[in-house]
């Protein structure tokens, strides 16, 4: 049988580390890249464990669901959505976190949880780069009416556990900016 607690732990405790590593290795530069990376790691999670029990598990990236909305990642069990993952990426240095956008995604997840009875959890992963730490507590989420919704954060500058500046951040950020500028330049050169 599928172990939902183990998957919850993977998304809350491991997926963010894998995504941070991809960003720091210059594989992820925008939200679309982030979707692809998360999709890959979620698929690999299930591939390693196999589809045991009565539920056939499959993962989709940006599927169009009944109401026309497009969640970032959906995990299906027996052809019904059982998990949804939304991703937000604010990678500009010192850019304010768009809390309205985050609230919109939490509300979207809440509406999905109400609409799809087999949906177990909704996850939101937020990537940002500031000195200030941002992490809504499970208690705050529950108090705001966001039950069965988890918000994980990835601060590119400071470690989430102690808030200390990441070793090598300045050199990494300088190279990241160079790659971003080059990607923007390449994009401008593409004829439309």
Describe the structure.
It is a single chain. With 192 residues, the protein is of the alpha/beta class. Helix content is 44%, strand content 19%. A 5-stranded mixed β-sheet has the order 1-2-3-4-5, sandwiched between helices. The protein is globular and about 45 Å long. The N and C termini lie far apart (50 Å). The mean pLDDT is 88.
Overall residue-averaged pLDDT value: 88
| Strands side by side in the biggest sheet | 1-2-3-4-5
**How would you characterize the largest beta sheet?**
5 strands, mixed
Helix/strand class: alpha/beta
Shape descriptor reads globular
| Head-to-tail CA distance between termini | 50 Å
Give a brief rundown of this model.
This protein is about 45% helix and about 20% strand. With about 190 residues, the chain is an alpha/beta fold.
Q: Key terms for this structure?
A:
5 helices; 192 residues; five-stranded mixed beta sheet; single chain; alpha/beta; 44% helix
What are the SSEs and their pairings?
Elements lengths: L3 H21 L6 H19 L7 E5 L11 E5 L2 E11 L8 H17 L5 E8 L9 H6 L5 E7 L13 H21 L3
Parallel strand pairs: 3-4, 4-5
Antiparallel strand pairs: 1-2, 2-3
Helix pairs in contact: 1-2
